[in-house]
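This follows on from our talk about sequence and fold. Please put the record directly below this note.
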Amino acid sequence: MAPAPHGPRRARIVFSDSAAKQLENITSEAEIHALDRALVVVSVDPDVGEPIPGDAAGPQLRQYADEVERVRLLYWVTALRTVVVVAYIEV
């Protein structure tokens, strides 16, 4: 019997220095849970967020807002589909 096929490959998530500093300050289990949910959504579909208008010379920033968990992520996607989280913001 053949093994079950895997789902689509998730994007790798990395954090900018400023986002990493924000993560260090999270102490609430609820905030960690909310952030985890948002990161899973973005890792499964990096294009889910809305593009943020800006300079065409730099990476295209996107924002993903989860109104249920009250979380907003600012991020960009590399050519190799790595998601770079620039900031985690509570809505």
Observations:
- The first helix runs from residue 17 to 24.
- DSSP finds two helices and five strands in the chain.
- The mean pLDDT is 86.
